[in-house]
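Researcher: Structure for this, please.
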Amino acid sequence: MAAKKLTPQQQRDRRAKIMLALLGVVFLAVLAIQVPKFLPHGGSAAPPPPAATTTPATSTALTSAAPASSQLTRFTRFAQKDPFKAGVKDAATGVSSSAGTAATTPKQPQQSPLKINVTQSPPPPSVPTVPAALLKVNGKRTVLVLGAAFPKKSPMFRVVALSQKAIWIQLVAGSLSNGKQTLKIDLGRKVTLQNVTAKTSFILSMVKPTTAPAPTKASG
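Model: Predicted structure, token format:
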């Protein structure tokens, strides 16, 4: 009679059972070898270690021995003081005071601040001014007020009228060639005058209107 053919699943289960049986045998063999190593030999527990013996010290050795010079045989407690109220002795008076009280020192005489008197000179008195004209005579500039005569060394002309755009002059002695007594010089215009008798000439031009200190009256 032929054996029954196993299916693939049955074959795998069979092999698994065989491997499990082999592993069980190997595990039992390992236990048989290793377990005796952890068991105590002879079946008796190890004796306890012997108790340490102590030799009692005699009390007479401490009381009968004389203390050395460097040993402390007696001590007393110091009186407790407040560290924040340490005594401070004044070297001058010999009186001690606490550190929390400020030491009194003689007051120095207070010096008065230095005072500097600054005297200011009074401003100069204002001088009254009058209308004037800046006139150029032969290239030289001169300021002329109403009634002034020029040139200064030998006056030949006198200012008889002024405006912002002109100046009027008059001969001190003699007359002009046209018979008039006054001559008008406009601002920025040049006028040439010739003295036939002295054979001299004057080139006059008004530069600009201005002001000048009022002339002082001569005391009579």
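Researcher: Any notable elements?
Model: The longest strand covers residues 200-213. Residues 170 and 181 are 6 Å apart (CA to CA).
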